[in-house]
Amino acid sequence: MTRLIEPLLIFLTVVATFVLTADTLWTQELRWVFSYSAAVILGQGLIRDLITLLRSRDMTAAPVTDLRGLCAESTVGLSLLIVGAGGLTLLGVHQTVALGQVQITILLAVLLTAGWIMKDYVVALRRVEDHRQVRVR
Question: What is the model's pTM?
């Protein structure tokens, strides 16, 4: 049951966005679109983590796994932030984009769905001297 709550909230958020952005034209520089997209993904992960912490008081202690890495959500969110706020600014890219109701809704739906999918993945960091012998599956 609880696994269905987040997809339902994503759906309701997307529908509310579509309804509330009627006749809206959002004009921003591309770097800010990247940065706001990063904020959506990072914010979604933060909210999920806070809810998990609040709920963990009631849960039995789960086994802990040691792994050197980053959660995929944080990796993608930070990458978007670096590209948007850092890279495009340093390169002097000041391209303006205009997003209407449908584009805003699709962007938010893609970001929230991607965040929901990425929540169960970790990008593992491991030093391998000769990576020619590593098979990625």
Answer: 0.82
Which positions of the chain have pLDDT values less than 70? Answer: 1-2, 58-62, 64, 67, 131-133, 135-137
Give the DSSP H/E element, type plus range, for residue 37: helix 30-55
Q: How far apart are CA 79 and CA 86, in angstroms?
A: 10
Measured between alpha carbons, how far is 38 from 17 in angstroms, rounded to an integer?
18
How far is the CA of 135 from the CAs of 30, 40, 131, in angstroms? 37, 34, 9
The DSSP secondary-structure symbol of 21 reads: T
CA distance 47 to 40: 10
Q: What is the pLDDT of residue 96?
A: 94
Q: Which residues of 39-76 are buried (b: 16+ CB within 10 A; e: fewer)?
A: bbbbebbeeeeeeeeeeeeeeeeeeeeeeeeebbbbbb
* Distance, CA of 95 to CA of 30 (rounded, Å): 6
